[in-house]
Design a protein that fits this description.
By secondary structure, this protein is α/β, with parallel strands linked by helices. The protein has two helices and three strands. Helix 2 (51-58) links the parallel strand 2 and strand 3 (62-65). The chain starts with a helix and ends in a 6-residue tail after the last strand.
Length: 71
Amino acid sequence: MDEGRLQSLACDRSGERYLVCDAAKIGLQDFYNFCNLERIDALITDASITPEQRTLVEGSTRLVVSSHDEA
């Protein structure tokens, strides 16, 4: 079974779904869509998220932004 199909099955069978990604990936399209953002309970990302990215995510799901700064 390929990785994309496995991720899709995991998403389908999960009670709660959280996506963790760095802000640079928000708005990009991958070669395989395993779960729509509307089906995610929350997206967790870093503080470098732009206002445009924030609007994109908040139109589909809850957004959690890390306040952790690396030194």
